[in-house]
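[STRUCTURE TOKENS]
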Amino acid sequence: MTPVHPDGPLMDEAVGRLVRPYTVSDGRTRATFHFTLVTTVRATGVQTEGAFGLEHAQVLALCEQPVSVAEVAARMQVPAAVVKVLLSDLAEGGAVVAGDTPTAPSDHYARPDRDLLEAIRDGLLRRL
């Protein structure tokens, strides 16, 4: 689906992005928060203050579940540097949090079974 902006479409399926990436971040190239490509970000549910654009809303929607910065950039089809600037804006407003570990324990992030890891290691050593 093509994102629609009040002034017209941002993407054209035949030619790609119609808006240059640096215009998405208002010409800013440096993020105010430190993000790597593998940094996990998620929305907090906090309402943001200030005037954010369509791209901020798209980033926020992608962050409803924990997601990496690289995945947000890929889904939005913009450079990671642009996504980092947008995420910084949202983080300053408290709308997203970043971290490589979850804040609440869950089965998805459970520690691996030590016995299983040792069995895998032993099997690999036998093959060498």
Notes: The radius of gyration is 19 Å. Residues 114-127 form the longest helix (14 residues). The CA atoms of residues 73 and 83 lie 6 Å apart.
